[in-house]
Structure formats: C-alpha cells, structure tokens
Amino acid sequence: MAIYETILERDVVILGGGATGSFAAIALKDLGKSVVVVEKRDQLGGHTNTYADSATGKAVNFGVQIYHNTSVVRRFHQRLGITVAPLPRPTIKPLYVDFSKPVIVDNYTVSMVGPDYTDQLRKYPYLEDGFHLPDDVPEDLLLPWSEYATKYNIDQSQHAIFQAPGSPGDPSKRLAVYVFNFVNSLVLSAMKGDIVRNVNGDNSELFRNAHAEIGTENVLLGSNVTSATRSPSGIKLVVSTAEGEQTIHAKQLIVAAPPQASNLEPLGLDSREQKILGQVEGCPFYTGVITSTGLPTQFSYYGVGADAYYQAIQPPSVAYIMPSPAAPGHFFYGYTSLEPLGQNEVEARVRKSIRGLQTLLVANGSDTTAEPQFRAFADNTPFHMELSAESIRGGFYKEMDTLQGYRNTWYIGALSAITSSLLWSNTEAILPRIMSAIDGE
C-alpha cells in the first residue's frame, strides 16, 4: 500500500485534468519533468464523458464524440496506446425539432458550407487557432452574427454553421469573431468527414490510459485548491482531497481549468489578474444518457427555433437527442441554457421534451407510454468561453497573453479554442516557454 504523502514536491502542478491538462501532463512527463494534476471531478478527461451500459458493457459517449484527423490527435492517441480510425458515415436521418412548441421543422435543410461563408472566413486567418487579433480589431468582428451575416449576404451556409460545432447560447447573437474562430477551416474539414475516434468506441479510454501513465500518486481526483502562495521562488498550493489536506510545492503552475476569476479565487488573484480574468464568461451546457425514451431509433433529433432567425435554436432548449451507435436503447443528449440549472431541473426539462417528441412521432413508431430513465449526467459549464465586444475592443486577448508566466502561472485550455486538436497543438506551442521557466532560463 502506498504511503500517503501530505507534501508533494513537483516541477509543475496542473490545475484541471481535462483534455488539455492531461495532454500537458503527458507532454511534460515525456520531457523529463515531474507533474501533479489537481482535478475536481472523479476522472480525467473533462468533457469526455462515457457511460458503460450495465448489461453489455458497451461505451456510450455523451460528451466528446469525435476528433479531428490531425497529426497531434494521432500522435497523442498513439502515445497512449489507442488506435483511431475514421468515423463511418452516419446512416441515421436527422430530424430538426423546435422542442419549445413542440414541432418538427420540415423545411430545415443543412447543405455544405459554401463560399458565402468561406470567403469571409479567409479574411481572418488570425482566428484559425486562437484570437491573435490586430491592435485595431475590425468592428465587423464585434457584430452579432445575425448583423454580420446580413451585411455580407451569408445565406446558404447558415444552417450548417448553426449545427457546428454545437449550440451553447443563442448562435444568432454570438459575436462574429467567435463564429469564425469556432467554425474554422479545421471544423469545415471535419464536416466533410475528416474525423477519427477510438476504434473500440470508448473515448474515455484515452484518459484512463493517461491517468495510468501520469501515475496515481500524481493525479489528485475529487480535489480542490483551498489556498495558494505564488511567489518568485515558486508555487505552494494547499489542496483538499478525499484522503485529507495535501500541500504541493512546484516551480510552475499550469491552469487548464476554466480561467474565470470566480473559478480561480483560491489562487489569490491580484488586481491585475482580477481585472483580466473577471471578464471571462461562459454558457451553461449539460449532457447525459437516457434509456426508455420511447423514441424511434432511426432518427437523431436536433434542436432549432421554428420562428427564429434562420431557425436558430433558442435556449433554454434541448440541443440534441441522439441514439447511441454502440448500445441499443441508449440515447445521449445536450441541453443549452442561458442561466445555470441543477441536474434535477435539466432532466425534468429533457423529460418534458421527450414526452413532446413521443406524441409527435406516434406515426413513426414512438411509444407514448415509455418513461425516460436518466442514467448519467455531466455539467459542462462553462462552455464556449466568450467575452463582450467591449472587452475584446479593449484588448482582452493581448492582456491575457501578458499573463503567461506572470507569477509563475501559465494558462492553457478552452479560452483560445474549443476542439481538442487545437487545444493540444496550442499547448505544444507554449510548452517551450514553460520548460524554460521550469529550468530557470
């Protein structure tokens, strides 16, 4: 039995064991540095949520579904012994549903993204992998998407844009800068089918293997920072864990958790950090697994707004309900809201939406007597972290760059991108600077 250590000495402490934090831990380990990961959840992987069907053991992914087919994705999976392969073309028919009414929106047609959008995207190459904005941010980028699209006659591609890469918040009101960053060239390639996943269908295996590789003694699950000292001589964190209080001494701190001031309060933010990080906002987004839905399994159900701008989804709403390809009878869902909700409230709203769908689809074989059973739940808030137009105009992203290395603290994660492939490549790009800081150069 391992002896419990109350004081850990490491080169780096990583706050947050999601996709980015896990990647950084493996990369630093491979570079010969000692690490410890502090993660508030009971597993690594962040939004990579997987439920195991108790009857068959089959994996139901209800968070991250696929990965872009890039070199960093293939290398990271290979490093952890995971074989990836292209995802088969979907054979399930999509149905577009306004869950608030409820009604099937028959005239919602998703075509491929066309030049009306791609010609505009090419104007902003500095948004492809982050927010490398010029000093004078183009005012067009700070328009709500509906205004930008109207100004530049973006019509053909609207439905496709609203369906990728997800639907947190009201997509028609999202600033254009975020639309171009989220629906970038990599996402457009993925929409054409250039995507991969674990061949066994269990996306969480990647992070279980990462946990084993990092070492159980170096992964503190179900843990939270309670206090911190960050000085020129290094980092000291006091962490509450299931085994008791743990003190960590490290040379550098990497924040892979959401970089919001409210989330990082235990780090003892100074006025400069408070001013910058206090501007970060994010959308509530929830996912889960359901059985006994009574819904026809030949459809995937996507939330839209029947009477809205280009029929964009209007939160709060179910974003999607989809049958699991691996475990018959299991569905996974996403729910988007403008305000935080508890699990019971989310599930009550999803249940109501399913009841409405059952009634709508009787002719397609739905079972109106089925009582939905909720099997798993995940709160992925904050999702799609964004800033106001005023904050961007005021230079937030340049100010954020000045925090890199400040007080021996580095920021990686979903502030610059939302896809794992970009998060991992961006982390690789900043690692040389972190290594220099560790080595005192």
Automatic annotation (TrEMBL):
Q: Which domain of life is it from?
A: Eukaryota
Any idea which GO molecular function terms this record carries? oxidoreductase activity
Q: Where is the signal peptide?
A: none
Q: By its UniProt entry, which Gene3D superfamilies does this protein fall under?
A: 1.10.405.20, 3.30.70.1990, FAD/NAD(P)-binding domain
Protein's name according to its UniProt entry: FAD dependent oxidoreductase
Native organism is Thyridium curvatum
